[in-house]
């Protein structure tokens, strides 16, 4: 479904992504994991059409243009950005209406919004509330619901568990797994490697803008390079901060 | 006397409201001050004058004034703003100052620098309500302003385009992810802003039955003051403050002398900047620019 070859993204003189190759097949959940600054978010933003890039990104056999987010959405690629991208000055209902902005089938779109309210009753209860007053978990549900309303075939999620309590993260991860069962293809960026590798099919480990390793999620969960990537980042950034793998006994440092 | 001044103040305030709303639309969406709006107001007035002089009805004058100003606003967006979007905010501001001076020059060359006047008797019919005399044109100014402001409010709050406009205003990137063409919405905001300024120009020039190429400078600055007092991050501030400033100005002239008129308006603006920089309806800690 999605093929990325030789992807390069530059921020001024900085090469944030350096020749990334990756594939996502229909119906898969694929994770991009790696430490902060590895290039995960930049990669997913390039796929969504938010940045200029070099190299090739093809979706369903068609090459994607750089910086063409509106076009990519209409082609079937939706991104829930890091920090959720909620429109906080709009109500929950208005946020969902923005989810169908790109659709011309008005009656079907409104019916889909009703279905979304049925699927996420908390959004129905708070449909008139400003989105900014929702809890982090509710905002994430709203962001995912809004993205689904564009009827994507490929859903991109950037750090969907960021800032969420562990229990709420589990709900979000369960939702992602359920979306795959509904036939959706998911490419996500996540810091919580252990939990992600539990429900993802495959994963790519990025470091300094390059893919270090990739493979089946179960295999990668035991790959020492995964642990090293996270531990290296933690010790360099803040010795006092808890390791991203602190709750992840499955992955052990090499040696 | 007091009621008469109130009506006069509301007429003037209606025009300030339209021009301030015009400034706020661009300011709220893009966080830039389009200085050329004052000249779009003036251009609308001249176009309205030309249409009336050609013996077309008032509605045609309004449509041509709004359409002409909207088209020039389109040019300002395409040449003066869009290529400079990544530049610091001062750059497009300077660019709109350039457009402002060019527009003044164009109008001076086309219509001359002397004031134009309509023949007397064209729009000076009056109705009497008790001791208050209200010009029919005053009623038109207030009525058209109410209709335009209500239409803009409805558009922003209740339509898909309005939601897209608010989305771009709050987070341009997220709006793009939702399929909104941010460039098109920006262009739409520029044109809508131009149309409102053009309408205000037609209304005030026909109300006073006179116009000069320099009318935009004074009214534009007053409208900026209205926007600042109402809150630069809220278009709704202009709706409340516009009529109040109009009334305050007329009352100042009536009871304090015309030499005091600007003192009140700009004094209020400075007091607002000192005591409540976000304006009456502006949000204190917003990083974005709600429309």
Q: What would you say this structure looks like, in words?
A:
The complex is a heterodimer of chains A (255) and B (291). With 255 residues, chain A is an alpha/beta fold. Chain A has a domain at 2-85 and 152-237: P-loop containing nucleotide triphosphate hydrolases (Rossmann fold, 3-Layer(aba) Sandwich), CATH 3.40.50. In chain A, 38% of the residues lie in helices and 24% in strands. Chain A has a 6-stranded mixed β-sheet with strand order 6-7-8-3-9-10, sandwiched between helices. In chain A, a hairpin with a 2-residue loop joins strand 1 and strand 2 (14-24). With 291 residues, chain B is mainly alpha-helical. Chain B has helices spanning 2-30, 37-53, 58-81, 90-111, 136-158, 160-170, 172-177, 182-208, 215-230, 236-256, 261-275, and strands at 116-117, 126-129, 132-135, 210-211. In chain B, strands 1-4 form a two-stranded antiparallel sheet. In chain B, strands 2-3 form a two-stranded antiparallel sheet. Chain A binds chain B through residues 48-50, 69-70, 73-74, 78-79, 81, 85, 87-90, 94, 97-99, 101-102, 146, 150, and chain B through 160, 163-164, 166-167, 170-171, 173-181, 288, 290.
Give the averaged pLDDT of chain B, no decimals: 89
Structural class category of chain A: alpha/beta
DSSP helix fraction of chain B:
over 70%
Helix content of chain A: 25-40%
The largest sheet of chain A, given as strand count, sense and whether it forms a barrel, is:
6 strands, mixed
DSSP strand tally of chain A: 10
Any idea of the CATH class of chain B?
Mainly Alpha
């Amino acid at each position: 479904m999605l093929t990325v070859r030789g992807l390069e993204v530059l921020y001024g003189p900085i090469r944030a992504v350096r020749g990334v190759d990756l594939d996502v097949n229909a119906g898969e959940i694929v994770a991009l994991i790696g430490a902060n600054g590895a290039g995960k978010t930049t990669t997913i933003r390039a796929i969504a059409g938010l940045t200029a890039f070099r190299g090739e990104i093809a979706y369903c056999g068609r090459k994607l243009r750089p910086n063409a987010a509106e076009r990519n959405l209409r082609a079937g690629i939706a991104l829930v950005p890091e920090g959720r991208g909620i429109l906080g000055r709009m109500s929950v209902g208005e946020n969902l209406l923005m989810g169908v902005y790109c659709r011309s089938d008005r009656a079907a779109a409104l019916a889909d919004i009703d279905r979304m309210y049925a699927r996420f009753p908390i959004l129905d209860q708070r449909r008139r509330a400003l989105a900014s007053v929702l809890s982090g978990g509710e905002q994430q549900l709203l962001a995912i619901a809004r993205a689904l309303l564009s009827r994507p075939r490929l859903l991109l999620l950037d750090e969907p568990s960021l800032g969420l309590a562990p229990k709420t993260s589990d709900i979000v991860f369960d939702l992602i797994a359920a979306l795959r069962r509904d036939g959706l293809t998911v490419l996500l960026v996540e810091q919580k490697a252990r939990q992600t590798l539990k429900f993802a099919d495959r994963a790519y480990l990025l470091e300094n803008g390059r893919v270090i390793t990739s493979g089946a999620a179960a295999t990668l969960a035991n790959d020492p390079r995964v642990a090293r990537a996270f531990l290296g980042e933690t010790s360099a950034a803040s010795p006092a901060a808890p390791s991203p793998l602190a709750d992840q006994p499955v992955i052990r440092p090499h040696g | 006397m007091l009621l008469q001044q109130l009506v006069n103040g509301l007429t003037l305030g209606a025009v300030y409201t339209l021009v301030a709303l015009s400034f706020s639309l661009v300011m709220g969406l893009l966080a830039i001050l389009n200085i050329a709006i004052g000249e779009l107001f003036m251009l609308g007035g001249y176009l309205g004058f030309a249409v009336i002089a050609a013996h077309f009805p008032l509605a045609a004058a309004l449509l041509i004034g709004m359409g002409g100003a909207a088209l020039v606003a389109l040019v300002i967006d395409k040449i003066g703003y869009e290529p400079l979007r990544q530049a610091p905010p001062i750059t497009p501001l300077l660019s709109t100052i350039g457009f402002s001076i060019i527009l003044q020059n164009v109008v001076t060359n086309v219509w001359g620098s002397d004031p134009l006047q309509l023949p007397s008797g064209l729009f000076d019919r009056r109705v009497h309500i008790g001791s208050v005399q209200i010009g029919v044109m005053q009623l038109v100014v207030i009525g058209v302003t109410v209709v335009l402001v209500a239409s803009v409010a409805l558009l922003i709050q209740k339509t898909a385009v309005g939601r897209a406009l608010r989305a771009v205003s709050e987070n341009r990137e997220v709006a793009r992810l939702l399929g909104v063409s941010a460039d098109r919405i920006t262009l739409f905001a520029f044109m809508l802003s131009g149309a409102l300024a053009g309408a205000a120009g037609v209304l005030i020039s026909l109300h006073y039955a006179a116009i000069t190429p320099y009318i935009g400078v004074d009214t534009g600055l007053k409208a900026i003051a209205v926007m600042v007092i109402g809150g630069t991050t809220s278009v709704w501030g202009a709706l409340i403050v516009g009529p109040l400033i109009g009334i305050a100005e007329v009352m100042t002239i009536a009871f304090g002398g015309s030499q005091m008129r600007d003192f009140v308006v700009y004094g209020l603006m400075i007091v607002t900047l000192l005591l409540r920089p976000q304006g009456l309806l502006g949000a204190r800690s917003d990083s974005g620019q709600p429309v």
